[in-house]
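Worked Example 4.2. Consider the chain below.
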Amino acid sequence: VTWSTGDALIATAAQTGLITGVAAGATTIIARESVSGLSGTKALLVQEPVNSVALSAANTTIVVGQTQPTTVTLLDRFNAPVVGRVVTYVSSATSVATVNASGVITGVGKGTADITATSEGKTSPAVAMTVDLVPVSRVSVSATPTPIVYPSHAFPATVQAFDASNNSISLAQR
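Applying the procedure from the previous section yields the following structure tokens:
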């Protein structure tokens, strides 16, 4: 089998079958069987490596339990977008904010966490995410039966907090 490419200015082929990208562009890989002369081809796209990573979030302040998607931009050395690359995300303080494999940040506890994205060894500047506690708009106390206290009496009571939309919120989010 002999190996070649459709455009040696885009990629070269060693006779071991190893293909090496030379410049960004599209070409084909050609494998030719020497006895029959039959050949097969496969399209090949050579891209520039990632040169820089940028990460952004529309909101950098969220509350516990809230999520915030991020946008990652990968650029090559010519500042052209690079697509189809693996990106990993990291939170500096997972007790404050976590970030999943899709770049969605979730508020976990009060504080600030730096979120970064990395691709091909290049890491973005950090996005500082501030996580606040869920604001309480109303508190309800209920006790059954109605408590009678003389001179002191312990009774079971339930305390429930509500946000501005009257949604029940866990006191753990406070």
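The longest strand covers residues 111-119. The chain has a mean pLDDT of 91. Compare this with Example 4.1 before moving on.
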